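Task 17 of the worksheet. Students: predict the tertiary structure of the chain below and write it out as structure tokens. Keep your answer in the requested format; marks are given for formatting as well as content.
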Amino acid sequence: MTPGLIVSAPASGTGKTTVMLGLLRCLAEDGVAVQPYKCGPDYIDPAFHRAACGRESFNLDSWAMPRGLLATQLARGSDVALAEGSMGLFDGVAFPGEAGTGASADIAALTGWPVVVVLDVSGQAQTAAALALGMARFRMDVPVAGVILNRVASPRHERLCRLGMQAAGLRVFGALPRRGDLTLPERHLGLVQAVEHPDLETAVARYAAFLREHVDLTAIRAAAAGGADLGATTLPPPPGQRIALARDAAFSFTYPHLLDAWRRQGAEVLPFSPLADEPPPAADVCWLPGGYPELHAGRIAAAGRFLAGLRAFPGPVHGECGGYMVLGEALVDASGTRHAMAGLLGLVTSYEKRKMHLGYRLAELAAPIPGHGPGSRLRGHEFHYSTILSQPDAPLARVTDAEGAEVAETGSRRGRVTGTFFHLISGVA
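Model answer:
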């Protein structure tokens, strides 16, 4: 299998995405076929990875993906793999899935890919080495190749940090000076989507130049290792052979591995844009993924051709998170304005009354959704701030979190129409 590295950190907000994008661009510019990945359920970062190196990025999730699906993700030919971690290196859930807890460390242990730790050394010097040493020793099955020091204040600060790392026996691949201008814009679900970035190409080029100046790229490339064979591969089933897929700034959160699996099994994905008032094309099934409908509720409510076509669609219709909200009766935006939606379900949601819903979900279906029959057990992830004001339809599933506690967001069903607040990642036996 392909040797690789995992770019991780002690916590979110350390600058690992900047490092990841810069490394991807540098390797691609140097003629290296680099395959990007994102550890965990994040569906925004992979689009940035693709923009940085020109290859589709795929998620690796040790809680939500069975071993066969992980094996499928890893069986993508390249010279080297580069995976960006989520949260802190060891952060996961208490009760593991088949392959682990969802922590980036699980992927390092499964693949043998060494970890490059991005350390924000603001406000500390030699103490940063104690933190890095603890990370290197916390799990002996997780190899740590070394560190990249980030947000270094001065040459003296860098020298002290390096002395600490030397005493701890840890390799320093580079030291990045503090820069306030190398940040990506964010909104309530994380980074602003790659397609919405005002000048992503310029930003990525700046990250690459920054890393070339301050990081030993030759040493980074040489540190790539591992690449364990996880055995037989499996593919999630497509929801139909012809899939009408909503695809624009309001409907963009579809996991790349699902689209890839559907196409590899011969399904035809037919994108259309609700924001451009396009109705769903003729297909076996209509799929509305998540995204940011709460930011575009007025345009969606005014999209007469889209809504009429959706209501007249003859086959199964399924919505995830934002797509589920649009299938409902109404959506209340941040200002308190109520917008009529498709009315195919009775769901009414409010973004004015915000509450964060975040975490893995395990669902046992009470009724079918496209591609999965009643009784199927599905793993996914939920992340949104909208509140349910009304949910009168029959529940779609019994849904629990990763620790087995039931959650109120059961999804809904009415005739041929179904919806969930979680984003599907895989089915489980």
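Marker's comment: The chain has a mean pLDDT of 94. The chain has twelve helices and 24 strands.
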